[in-house]
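FORM 12-B: Structure-to-Sequence Request
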C-alpha cells in the first residue's frame, strides 16, 4: 500500500514462526526433556533424591552464594557504571572494555586463577606462612634462631579458602558485567538537568540520588541483579577450583548434578536439575515482578 512504512524484517507470520521454532529448539524442548527424564523415577525416589541432606545443603550454598554475589555486584556494579559514564580518566576506555572480560574468559581459567591466588598455598592466601618461612630463614642465616612461630602470621592468611566466601568471590567476578552493562545505557541517556533542578531546590547529594536518580535506574539495576543471580546459580567451572567441595558443606548444586551423571544416575541428576530450575524460575519471576511494578510506577509518576 502506498505510503506504508517499509519493513526491513519479513512479515509477522514468518518472524513469529521462526521465533517460536528457535525458542522451542533451544529452550522449551530441552527443558521438557529434562522434566520427562524424571518420570523414570517414582515420586518416592524423586523425593528421596531431592531431599537428601547433602543435596539440600548444596541448594542452600548455591542460592546463598549467588544472592550474596549478585548483591555485591548490584552495589559495586552501579558504582563502576557511574564512574565509567560520569567521569573521564586515563585508561577509562581500557577499563570499560575490561568489564566484558569475564564474558570471554573460560570460567575454568577464572577458577584456576583465583585458586592460585587465594587458596592457602596461593600467592595471596599463603602470604602469612611464606613470610614466617622467609623471616625464620633470614634469622637462621644471621644466627638468630627462629624468632617466629609457624602460626605467628596466620592472621595474614586470606580467609577465602574453600568455603562460601571463596565461592562468592568468583561469582562476583563472573557476574559483574551483567549489572554494569544493564545500568550503563540508562546512565548515558540520563539528563543531568534533573539533578541540577533538584539541587537548585535545596536537595542534598544523597536525596538527589535516592529520590531522583535511582528510581530511574532501578528497573535496569534489578534486571542486572537478576542476570547476575541467574549466572551464579548455574556457574560450575570457576567454583569447583576454589571450593573445597566437601559434601554437605562446600558442594554446589551443579556439582551434585555432575556427580550423579558420572555415576550414570541420569534420572537423579535430572531430578536435582528440575528442582534447581523450579526454584530459579520462581525467584526470577519474583524479581521480574518487582521490575514490572517499578516500571509501571515510573510511568504513573
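FORM 12-B RESPONSE
SEQUENCE OUT:
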Amino acid at each position: 500500500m502506498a505510503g506504508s512504512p517499509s519493513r526491513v524484517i519479513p512479515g509477522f507470520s514468518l518472524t513469529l514462526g521462526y521465533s517460536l521454532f528457535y525458542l522451542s529448539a533451544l529452550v522449551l524442548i530441552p527443558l521438557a526433556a529434562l522434566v520427562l527424564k524424571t518420570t523414570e523415577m517414582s515420586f518416592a525416589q524423586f523425593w528421596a533424591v531431592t531431599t537428601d541432606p547433602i543435596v539440600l545443603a548444596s541448594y542452600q550454598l548455591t542460592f546463598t552464594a549467588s544472592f550474596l554475589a549478585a548483591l555485591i555486584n548490584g552495589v559495586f556494579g552501579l558504582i563502576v557504571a557511574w564512574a565509567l559514564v560520569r567521569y573521564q580518566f586515563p585508561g577509562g576506555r581500557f577499563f570499560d572494555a575490561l568489564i566484558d572480560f569475564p564474558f570471554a574468559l573460560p570460567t575454568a581459567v577464572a577458577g584456576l586463577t583465583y585458586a592460585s591466588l587465594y587458596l592457602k598455598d596461593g600467592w595471596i592466601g599463603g602470604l602469612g606462612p611464606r613470610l614466617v618461612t622467609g623471616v625464620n630463614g633470614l634469622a637462621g642465616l644471621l644466627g638468630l634462631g627462629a624468632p617466629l612461630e609457624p602460626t605467628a602470621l596466620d592472621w595474614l592468611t586470606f580467609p577465602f579458602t574453600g568455603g562460601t566466601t571463596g565461592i562468592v568471590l568468583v561469582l562476583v567476578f563472573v557476574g559483574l558485567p551483567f549489572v554494569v552493562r544493564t545500568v550503563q545505557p540508562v546512565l548515558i541517556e540520563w539528563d543531568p538537568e534533573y539533578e541540577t533542578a533538584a539541587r537548585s531546590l535545596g536537595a542534598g547529594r544523597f536525596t538527589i540520588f535516592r529520590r531522583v536518580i535511582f528510581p530511574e535506574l532501578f528497573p535496569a539495576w534489578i534486571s542486572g541483579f537478576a542476570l547476575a543471580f541467574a549466572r551464579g546459580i548455574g556457574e560450575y567451572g570457576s567454583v569447583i577450583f576454589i571450593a573445597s567441595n566437601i559434601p554437605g558443606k562446600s558442594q554446589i548444586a551443579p556439582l551434585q548434578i555432575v556427580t550423579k551423571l558420572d555415576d550414570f544416575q541420569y534420572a537423579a541428576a535430572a531430578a536435582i536439575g528440575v528442582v534447581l530450575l523450579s526454584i530459579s524460575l520462581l525467584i526470577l519471576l519474583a524479581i521480574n515482578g518487582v521490575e514490572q511494578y517499578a516500571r509501571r510506577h515510573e510511568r504513573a509518576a
